[in-house]
Amino acid sequence: MDDLNRGGSTAPLATYTEAVDWIKSLIPFGIRPGLDRIEMLMDKLGNPHRRLKFIHVAGTNGKGSTCAFLTSALIQSGYSVGTFTSPYITKFTNRFQYNNTDISEETLVELVNQLRPLVQEISETEFGSPTMFEVTTAVAILFFAGVSCPDVVVWETGLGGRLDVTNIVTPIVSVITNVGHDHMDILGDTLEKIAMEKAGIIKTGVPVVSCVTQPEVVAVLKEKAAACRSTLYLAGEDFSYEANEIREDVQTFHFKGPFRSLELGIVMKGEHQISNAAAAMMVLEVLRQYMAFMLEDEDVFEGLRHAFWAGRLEEVSKSPRIVLDGAHNPEGAESLAKSLPQLYQYGKLNLLMGMLSNKHHESYFKHILPIVDTLILTEPDFQNKMDAENLQVIAESLREKYAKENLAIIVEHNWGKALQLLKSITAEDDLAVVSGTLYLISDVRGTLLQQPDTEKGW
């Protein structure tokens, strides 16, 4: 890779494509947990993150949806909101939003040009070059602190928590949606170890909201919160939620918190979204009760109800019916398998999936195989993809114990051809589902919705 891409040239980047290509050129530096490089970068910039109010959201699943609920409710309540999420579904600018609007391409170029010489300086130190995600996080901080200046930033972790780049901030509230089996190659091979990493976002005196349920995970969070003298609002103990019914595509549920009880509704599909909405509601209650946020009930209700997050039980085609869901770990697969029969009536269920190689594939299949009639295995157009034949071997090994009778398993390496096959075999009364890594969801969604500017969702 030449010096221009790695930051060796001082000539300013002129276009959006050049700026994104430069950030992408940092991908080979990989994922390097730790805060040294981002701290150096922020120090060189005058620590702009210290001027912002953050709601820091971690968890295995549901982070993006929880961010969407919080963002929607706060905007509806009259607050300006910055939102930083990953990966993106349509375009790189999706990561950085102000009041649900992407950063402009021109602003992105300006901020990247501001960062590039500093990245080059750090790359010449013993710490090495900042990574793609570190630079992306720095772009977000510059955008929020120096350009858009929102009242509050909804701030999603990238991976884990304790050593995640986003953990450079001290939030006003922390959120840990849940803890499950994901990124075990980096975060640890037990739920306790993963929970310790997620709990790393808990800061001294900062309240934390969580919907974790496993006793061993609850114990880790309680111990960390106590050590930090932070109030922990735990689902099932300090607040609760109970599904009522689905009316006209709206899920209603009862929320009972430490301050009051409420009846709420959301259009995002799946029981698991009730958990995410309840976590968001508990955060909003903390902001209202202790931090003087002016949150009128009707605004909060409206904001939660109409929150949207792409690629999560999202119906993108009516004929044939195609639903996208970015379930890519065992817990996500369990929610998907539970939700589909509740939400849809169908003859056969045809599922297309592609995965990255570092996932817990066997446990994923144990949840999915019992409900699927035809399984099409493909590969995302992305590095670290899982070979479709290897997925087939795992699925076949579980067929006898878990699969429906007469399950058909098809391998098609090219995801575009696999999508065409899925459409062709799905009859009017059937349901087609595309699931797995969000990198596959991004490409499929862009194709089905005919979005020509769709980029790779890393």
TrEMBL record:
Protein name according to UniProt: tetrahydrofolate synthase
Domain of life: Bacteria
Native organism: Paenibacillus odorifer
Catalyzed chemical reaction(s): (6S)-5,6,7,8-tetrahydrofolyl-(gamma-L-Glu)(n) + L-glutamate + ATP = (6S)-5,6,7,8-tetrahydrofolyl-(gamma-L-Glu)(n+1) + ADP + phosphate + H(+)
Keyword hit for Ligase: yes
Homology family: Belongs to the folylpolyglutamate synthase family.
PANTHER family the record matches: DIHYDROFOLATE SYNTHETASE-RELATED (PTHR11136:SF0), FOLYLPOLYGLUTAMATE SYNTHASE-RELATED (PTHR11136)
Domain Mur ligase C-terminal: start-end pairs: 311-437
InterPro entries: Folylpolyglutamate_synth, Mur-like_cat_sf, Mur_ligase_C, Mur_ligase_C_dom_sf, Mur_ligase_cen
Domain Mur ligase central, first and last residues per copy: 153-283
Top-level EC class as recorded in UniProt: ligase
EC number: 6.3.2.17
